[in-house]
Amino acid sequence: IQNGVYLGPLSLVFSGPCTPCKNRRLEFTFDKLQIGPLSIPISAGTDTKVPPFFTYFEVNDDIAAARGRGGGLALWVRE
């Protein structure tokens, strides 16, 4: 899975493995940080028993919308 912030030619991208789970849930961890062309391995803290996750509440041909573990909203749009 990949999550990033893009500002013109600048980018800050976190990426790592994800695992689909039951109940429309997708668990993930980030193990790489990419700043422009520079890639840096990172170690995610595992101080909780519950990994970060998204719970989908809408998925169709154009969008996917989900809530994160912390309550934030994630929205993906097909281009």
State the gist of this model:
With 79 residues, this protein is mainly β. The protein is built from no helices and 9 strands.
Q: Helices, strands, pairings?
A:
Elements: E1 2-7, E2 10-15, E3 18-21, E4 25-28, E5 32-35, E6 38-41, E7 53-59, E8 63-68, E9 73-77
Antiparallel strand pairs: 1-2, 2-5, 3-4, 4-7, 5-6, 7-8, 8-9
Helicity level, as a percent range?
under 10%
Main sheet specs: 5 strands, antiparallel
Class inferred from helices and paired strands: mainly beta
> How many strand units?
9
Outline the structure in words.
The protein is mainly β. The protein contains no helices and 9 strands. The chain has strands spanning 2-7, 10-15, 18-21, 25-28, 32-35, 38-41, 53-59, 63-68, 73-77. The strands form 2 sheets. The chain has a 5-stranded antiparallel beta sheet, with no helix packed on it. A 4-stranded antiparallel beta sheet has the order 1-2-5-6, with no helix packed on it. A hairpin with a 4-residue loop joins β8 (63-68) and β9 (73-77).
Give the key terms.
mainly beta; 9 strands; about 0% helix; about 60% strand; 5-stranded antiparallel beta sheet; 4-stranded antiparallel beta sheet; single chain; about 80 residues; flat
